[in-house]
């Protein structure tokens, strides 16, 4: 998608700032759409001890991440962009490999999910640094999302952490 011909954006924001913000938000949208699907995939395919606790922990995360994608997509539209949530847009926008585990044990999935959250959360932080310079509204939105995402990662880590604070995997 090209944002070169933005015809309108939020009042008080110039087209160049809008273009840069949209590009950053498009990356966050792809990551969160991918995360939402990955969480549901794990929900369907996790087995073993603590299955039900993990199974039930994931659905609220799916719902929250779905809300985040909607918020980001609507911000992209507000700034004059065209949010894309198609499977092709997700795959083409990713810079990471697909989630590799199918049916698997709780620990295996949670170790892999911790890595997914590390990537998503780290990229949210990187986007925040740039958004702080060009769009404080989007910065605030992403900051709020990051607080929830970091809490979700903490929930995951509580299942794979030893008493001494070491993570499995």
From TrEMBL:
Family annotation (InterPro entries): DPS_DNA-bd (IPR002177), DPS_DNA-bd_CS (IPR023188), Ferritin-like (IPR012347), Ferritin-like_SF (IPR009078), Ferritin_DPS_dom (IPR008331)
Pfam assignment, any one: Ferritin
Domain annotation Ferritin/DPS: ranges: 22-161
Any one GO molecular function term: oxidoreductase activity, acting on metal ions
Family membership: Belongs to the Dps family.
NCBIfam families given in the database record: PRK09448.1
Descriptive protein name: DNA starvation/stationary phase protection protein
Organism: Alteromonas halophila
């Amino acid at each position: 998608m090209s944002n070169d011909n933005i015809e309108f954006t939020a009042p008080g924001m110039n087209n160049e700032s809008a273009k840069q913000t949209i590009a950053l938000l498009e990356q966050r949208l792809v990551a969160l759409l991918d995360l939402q699907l990955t969480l549901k995939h794990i929900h369907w395919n996790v087995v073993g001890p603590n299955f039900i606790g993990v199974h039930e922990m994931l659905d609220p995360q799916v719902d929250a991440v779905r809300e985040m994608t909607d918020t980001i997509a609507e911000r992209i539209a507000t700034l004059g962009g065209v949010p894309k949530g198609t499977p092709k847009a997700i795959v083409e926008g990713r810079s990471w490999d697909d989630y590799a585990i199918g049916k698997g044990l709780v620990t295996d999935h949670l170790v892999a999910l911790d890595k997914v959250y590390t990537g998503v959360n780290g990229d949210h932080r990187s986007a925040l640094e740039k958004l702080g310079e060009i769009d404080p509204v989007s910065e605030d939105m992403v900051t709020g999302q990051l607080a929830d995402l970091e809490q979700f990662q903490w929930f995951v880590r509580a299942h794979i952490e030893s008493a001494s604070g070491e993570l499995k995997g």
